[in-house]
């Protein structure tokens, strides 16, 4: 009996270390796979983060190139320089020259921008304008371009894409007044101040 017991004890003492080694190898192997999975997962995230960082670094560079805001340029960025020097200092009728035609359009200086009637700028460039008084919204269309502005909002919908404007649109005289830069640039025109004629000249952007 004692001999058999001793043999069992010896056998048990040999098997036990083997079992513990095997279980530790299995555990270690499972942890290695787990860590590898985690590393791959975070590596993918890190790669995405790197792209984000690059974008964040590039944005300030682009902004530095466009630090100065002009009344005649819509940069499509959510900022404005209210200290812009404007060619007019009070609301007045201003000549608009387009395709050798000249018409007088009422304009309002506001927050470093010049506001113009959506209806009148539409006539000047051959676009269509629709005004919805209940919602105070103007819709301008020409070709495949659509521009929607709402009174009290500093955003426009350019072909259904919400884009910031340099200042708010305002309701006045059964239409919406919006920055002339937004109205002109959206339809492919640049604005120049003609010193000789003291008016706005619209030129098609080639």
Overview of the structural elements:
The chain is of the alpha+beta class and 206 residues long. It has three helices and twelve strands, in the order αβββαβββββββαββ. The chain has a seven-stranded mixed β-sheet with strand order 9-10-3-2-1-12-11, with helices on one face. It has a five-stranded antiparallel β-sheet with strand order 4-5-6-7-8, with helices on one face. A hairpin with a 4-residue loop joins strand 6 and strand 7. It is elongated.
Please describe the structure with a list of short key phrases separated by commas or semicolons.
38% helix, 206 residues, elongated, alpha+beta, seven-stranded mixed beta sheet
Question: Gap between N and C termini, in Å?
Answer: 106 Å
Beta-strand percent range: 25-35%
| Count of helical stretches | 3
Please trace the helix and strand order, writing H or E for each element. Answer: HEEEHEEEEEEEHEE
Beta strand count: 12
Low-confidence stretches: 23-67
Give the averaged pLDDT, no decimals.
77
Radius of gyration: 34 Å
Shape annotation: elongated
Major pleated sheet = 7 strands, mixed
Percent helix among the residues? 25-40%
- Could you give the order of strands across the largest sheet? 9-10-3-2-1-12-11
Structural class: alpha+beta
Summary?
The chain contains 3 helices and 12 strands; from the N terminus they run αβββαβββββββαββ. By secondary structure, the protein is an alpha+beta fold.
SSE inventory with pairings:
Blueprint: H1 2-65, E1 92-98, E2 101-110, E3 113-117, H2 118-125, E4 128-132, E5 137-142, E6 145-150, E7 155-158, E8 161-164, E9 170-171, E10 176-179, H3 180-186, E11 189-194, E12 199-204
Parallel strand pairs: 1-12
Antiparallel strand pairs: 1-2, 2-3, 3-10, 4-5, 5-6, 6-7, 7-8, 9-10, 11-12
